[in-house]
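Ticket closed. Logging final result for DUF3808 domain-containing protein.
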Amino acid sequence: MKFPAEVRRGVRPGPQRLFWLLLLCSAVLREAFCAPLRETVAAPVLTPAQARAYTEVLNMRPAAARALLRGTDTGTLLVQDCLDITELLVSQDASRYATTVAAQNRRLALLEKSAEAGALREYTRAEIRLHQAAAQVVFGHEVQGAWSLRQSYQQMQQVVRRYPQYLPARKTLGMMQFFIGSLPESYRWFLKLLGLPGSVEAGLHNLRLAATQPNDFQLEARLILALLEETYYKQPAAALTLIETLHRQQPDNLLLSYLLISQHKKQHHTEAALAAYRARPTGSAYLALPYLHHMAADLLLYQGQYAASVRANQVFLAEYQGQHYRKDAYFKLYLAAWLSGDAAGAEQHRRHIGAGGRTVLEEDTYAQRFFEDKQPLHKLLTRARLQIDGGYYREALATLNGFRATPATPLRDRLEEPYRLARAWHLLGRPDSARLFYARTIALAGNAPYYFAPQSALQLGYLYQLEGQKNTAKIYFQKALSYPKHEYKNSTDTKAKLALKELE
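Final structure:
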């Protein structure tokens, strides 16, 4: 049995997908259950050794973490499981899946037999079950994963009912509640089937409780909240400031280095992102993180350093054992070869796009669509896109100045040109010019199955929202939702839906 493709694709926040995998000690979906206070207790805490081990998990130093963990008490079982799920999901090594799930089952059995009682034990049981759900879904066991998710959800409800002051549960429940509540309406049948309601507002409330009050997992809560607000509520400066501050305090933390690179990349700070990549902590003590090389390949592509971009993606593909991002990597290899004039190399990479990997993530779906479409890309428009992604907006405008449409120009290219102009002007802080070209894109597009018009509608919604024109903003957010099919529909619809909620 398989879930429908749109459910399997999900709506993970694009630029931070790997972050959620790294923090799967708090992962997937749950609801915050605001029940009356039934039992007031002092929050159980990890022992000093367990807390240090957990810090090493977040530092991504597995051997150091493992050396600190002894025994089978509840806190040890929790941190061990956080370590195992992090190693599994970062490595994407399918050969480790069965061993990891078996270890999770043993820990759950030990918890059932344990004489310990209280919030930490109940939270650990729900958290381990959630990790198991994540592992099962990622490695294709979707039915088992759905059942494990439902069990974890119900157990975590009980934790919050019995121990409403236990902040780690608020952190995890709040995150999951947010994601359930942010799913498009078309997913409601699936959530009802699992018995998983959600609420964006309650989710943010619970995350803020966990982020602003001391607890063993406060760092996670702060990061998750900041990245949600950056991704969905346009607060990039706050997220970057937090991550920069934490990185200065913990320069040996590989997770924070990853997040710093990712945030600079997302906010079009190519030089800063590459500097953070080159300064990242390295060595055999750290968990291998091949995705960093994939990010670096993108950054080098933005700068036109095509040979260096190829080398970085080749390192990624050689070290990475998973199936996600493979199509995207071959697409970027294609672009680097094609833009540098290597036609034979470009064709070889293009064929690899269709040969392997999965299309769960939007980047891979886009690459596969390019492979199947067989319509050649336009070099000027492609260069402009990469320049905009890299933060080189004026260079992109100069590149776009050379574009000339003819009657034979494909509709896709005629839509992409005004959309790229809009993005460049928007990011240069020229909203009037941006609005003009976003509107032109929408007018030309009709119902064409490309992302340029829905993204234009979304960006116009943001611009009018910023100016306080709520009714006009609503019209454009609703228009963004109205497009039936395009490459980035999941993420676009989620952002538009959340923006509409904010305007209510």
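The chain has a mean pLDDT of 88. No further action required.
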